Amino acid sequence: MKRMLLLLIGILFLGCYSTSKNESPPNIIWLVAEDQSPEFFPMYAEVPVELPNLSSLAKDGVVFENAYSPVPVCAPARSALITGMYPTSLGTHNMRTYNGYRSENQPSINIPSYSPLLPEGVKMFTEYLRASNYYCSNNAKEDYNFKKTDGAWDASSGKAHWKNRAPGQPFFAVFNFGISHESQIWGQQGEPLIVSPEDVPLPPVFPDTPVVRKDIAVNYSNLVRLDKQIGKIIDALKEEGLYENTFIFFYGDHGGPFPRYKRALYETGIKVPLIIKFPNQKGAGTRDNQFISFIDFAPSVLSLAGIKPPDYMQGKARFGLFKTEPSLYIFASSDRFDEQTDRVRAVRYKQYKYIRNFTVTLPHALPVKYREQMPMMQELNSLWETNSLPEKPALWFQTPKVIEELYDIDLDPYELNNLAFNLEKKEVLEQLRKKLDEWIIETGDLGEIPEKKLLQNWFPDGIVPELSELQKIDSESEYTLVHPHKGVSIIWKRRSDSIWYPYTQPLPINKNLEAKAVRIGYNDSPLLLLD
Fold this sequence. Notes:
Elements: H1 2-16, E1 27-33, H2 52-60, E2 62-68, H3 74-83, H4 87-90, H5 126-131, E3 135-139, E4 155-156, E5 171-177, H6 183-187, H7 210-239, E6 246-252, H8 267-270, E7 271-277, E8 286-288, E9 292-293, H9 297-304, E10 329-337, E11 340-349, E12 352-357, H10 375-385, H11 391-394, E13 404-408, H12 426-442, H13 451-458, E14 471-474, E15 478-482, E16 489-494, E17 501-502, E18 507-508, E19 513-518, E20 528-530
Parallel strand pairs: 1-5, 1-6, 2-8, 2-9, 3-4, 3-5
Antiparallel strand pairs: 2-7, 6-7, 10-11, 11-12, 12-13, 14-15, 15-18, 16-17, 16-19, 19-20
């Protein structure tokens, strides 16, 4: 009864929360935990560790019970966060396309590193914030599945921080925490465990073995480390008197770090923890059970800043001046993961999840080399190969897959009982089947096109297109800059500077300025020297 009351209070609060054009622009922070599911946090479940900083944030904020990533892996998910669009509409649905970490991407399957040509006008939403005088910093992971454009951030590095802004300037700051990443399950194997393996809850999708229990214990230990790192950011806000009046988003960039979590369209792979602390702790301690997707984050932040979200965004502003009603559906996709490809789509509606498998000859348990560094994954493979894996964990490995899966999440949270063949659920199955078909068409799902064909369409002869030159119109006191294509961004800087600024109004005559046009996926226009 208490939980239902908190949910009702939270919904009523969010329904009336808005910012006024007359209010000062708010500060906004994203605290991003890599690779984590809600079930590992005390505000969602009984867990064997204490996370005092996140628990305190939850008490001061609103806990969202149905927050989702549209893709169960990081780079495509980040493309959705930074644009407000589905990766399948952008061409960023494969993991990964643009590889900023090495010169080669996936040579074993002849996929180079490339930055998809995003639809005309699509920008990183921080450009709109910066054009409205926000200081935007990112510390430090980018990995948007495309090459960022100059002008998106005031600072993007391990040293980026709101403290570097001008006095009184509103800020949007992102902090990413890698300690909770999948790689840290094997990376922290030699570090002391903060929780005993015997004390960790064991999801029914895993066998009960010492190896499995240790990896789960490592993850909980990593979350204690994460909590301490987040505490330092929160303490800094409080020390500077910023905590009360700042929107703080804490969320995971997709589901947990384990097999059948990350890279899976089950709830374990796409459902994420989300806490939002509103200024002056409005709605503190309440819960919200309405659907919210990563594609909603960009328009929501713009709306909170008093900026009208652009029409191309597929997400909805959930808060602020331009708030709209939430979606009744959550859509998610998976395609290529590193060297392995398997197209799968899913839609969540009320308590139901519908999944469509386009390649039934492949198991859900794709042999992704990166994941197979994890002791738990090695253990699962060994048990499967020796026919020793229990029935429920074995479902993930079975081949062929069924074409359709349907689950009642309320009754079956780990999606182990497929209702697609249950005649009593025929109406629900047909409804969600049709809804997914409509979404694929309406959003222009590029997953239907083979990746190499997309590359040919975008880059004939392998050549990345270059934007044409900027044009300037001189007057006695200023330069007006124009470009023949309306989908580009125009940016400028002082020649001695390294920071590019959005072009929002004519520039004063000054021989020390330079400008260019940029667009995601394209080479920048030639540099225009303003002499």
